[in-house]
Design brief:
With about 375 residues, the chain is an alpha/beta fold. Helix content is about 30%, strand content about 25%. The protein has eleven helices and 16 strands. The chain has a nine-stranded mixed beta sheet with strand order 11-10-9-8-12-6-13-16-15, sandwiched between helices. The chain has a five-stranded mixed beta sheet with strand order 2-1-3-4-5, sandwiched between helices. The chain has a two-stranded antiparallel ribbon with strand order 7-14. Helix 9 links the parallel strand 10 and strand 11. Helix 3 runs parallel beside helix 4. It is globular, with a radius of gyration of 23 Å.
């Protein structure tokens, strides 16, 4: 059924439609948040839209344009938007001002904007203009939609999601390194969706040498490929590696070898030197740097050593695990973590979501 034919009975129903609109910008809005908007009059949607790529219209403007093109009068209508309307000039004028000028009667937002430039000012501006305001409808879902944007606005860091695929006994490959394929096609395709929604995909030099991955999105249709990033302390990355194809790859290293840097720069890579005291890449500083570069969500696909280092250094927010219904015996582990003598030293997580994808199990688990 067309969104314009649905009978709107509750604020929750209308906001759910706005969230569906926001999903259409899942791969394209970064570094801006994914926002959807529907405009309702007399129980019917008269306009709908979602935030366009950076520099384009925000969701509210798209929805108002849609309503006008359909011949609808906006005066007195109710706007449902998944994030508080902006109140400042950025690449585009303030949406709050446009809503006031259009004569909107009521604005219902899912959640306030964490951006310090907004942070309630948009709703205040609407109220000052006599527009009725409601906030907090489907707030949790709206936060999940932009979990990386919220973290970056509040902490200056992206949301870091680490993906791994393994057997039920936790093996990512056989003892000889063979791993194609532990999980089924549905799980592999689903993994590409999570790649696509990220701003960048990070791997380590070990994975590049062993697998020579392209580390791009292929299984889902996306107009934007995430940035590719390699952690390579000694700068041993081959200029012929697939991950450099097309240019734009970022390489974090502890090496200042100018000859090696020049070769990789000729392949279109950017080299960022961030050593720690042990002359390895300073991983927490890498995450800080990615936040400064306006990355909202970062997707890790690496080997057990880099995985463990990122976890131990507090760089990971969430695990995305695909578990196949099989046992592989002796093989490669997901995480090369040190042994414990006491269970009190365990790393605690909490399950956020568990879902079957094809024949495999997908687990989202978050660090406490």
């Amino acid at each position: 059924m067309s969104i314009y034919a649905i009978n709107i009975e509750t604020d929750q129903q209308a906001m759910a439609l706005a969230l569906q609109q926001a999903e259409q910008g899942m791969f394209t809005t970064t570094p801006n948040p994914r926002v959807g908007c529907v405009i309702v009059r007399d129980g019917r949607v008269i306009g709908a839209g979602f935030t366009q790529p950076p520099g384009g219209n925000h969701a509210e403007i798209q929805a108002m344009q849609d309503a006008r093109q359909r011949g609808n009068d906006l005066r007195g209508a109710t706007v449902y938007v998944t994030l508080e309307p902006c109140s400042h000039f950025g690449r585009t004028p303030p949406c709050a001002d446009a809503l006031v000028e259009a004569g909107i009667g009521k604005v219902v937002s899912a959640i306030t904007d964490p951006n310090p430039l907004v942070a309630g000012k948009g709703l205040d501006k609407l109220q000052a203009a006599g527009i009725a305001v409601v906030s907090g409808i489907l707030q949790e879902q709206a936060h999940e939609m932009n979990i990386g944007f919220f973290k970056r606005m509040r902490q200056g860091r992206p949301w870091v999601r680490m993906k791994s695929a393994a057997s039920l006994d936790g093996k990512t490959a056989l003892h000889n390194g063979k791993s194609q394929w532990i999980t089924g096609q549905a799980a592999r395709d689903d993994g590409h969706f999570w790649r696509a929604r990220a701003c960048a995909i990070v791997t380590g030099i070990g994975t590049v040498k062993n697998d020579n991955p392209q580390l791009n999105v292929r299984a889902v249709d996306t107009p934007r490929q995430p940035r590719r990033i390699v952690i390579d302390s000694k700068l041993t990355l081959s200029p012929a590696a697939n991950i450099l194809a097309g240019g734009g790859t970022w390489v974090f290293t502890a090496s200042e070898d100018r000859a090696k840097i020049a070769v990789l720069e000729d392949r279109g890579a950017e080299i960022i030197v961030l050593p720690n005291a042990d002359n390895k890449v300073d991983l927490p500083r890498v995450i800080d740097e990615l936040g400064k570069r306006n990355l909202n969500e970062v997707h890790i696909e690496a080997g057990s050593k880099l995985n463990a280092s990122l976890i131990l250094e507090g760089c990971v927010d969430e695990l995305l695990l695909y578990l196949a219904p099989s046992l592989l015996g002796d093989g490669r582990d997901m995480f090369d973590l040190p042994p414990l003598d006491d269970l009190a030293g365990k790393i605690a997580l909490r399950f956020h979501e568990i879902k079957q994808i094809g024949e495999d199990l997908r687990i989202l688990a978050r660090f406490n």
